[in-house]
Amino acid sequence: QVQLVESGGGLVQAGGSLRLSCAASGSIFSINAMTWYRQAPGKQRELVAVISSGGSTIYADSVKGRFTISRDNARNTVYLQMNSLKPEDTAVYYCRIIVDSRLYWGQGTQVTVSS
Description:
- This protein is mainly beta and 115 residues long.
- Helix content is 0%, strand content 59%.
- Strands 2, 4, 5, 6, 9, 10 and 11 form a seven-stranded mixed sheet that branches.
């Protein structure tokens, strides 16, 4: 019933920027927390950033000061602005949104940062 669609990934040089988006569609009554995760090959999925329904944010130490998570409640969308990208940011990025007390995952979008 609910689908999350991610976009904005791609290939960028070190120091560049990308903006990821994740939009929820379907039967939605309420949305709580929105979260971005990433997973590099051979590594466990790790939390990147979280934004609560009230707008408070949490960032992984590795991205703090470079990434910004935001949300547009009218569009049921969460964004991840990524600046000063580093090769170690290369991963598949996944969004996770709590919709009506259920967890939904995006399909993932590849981010590749070249040196």
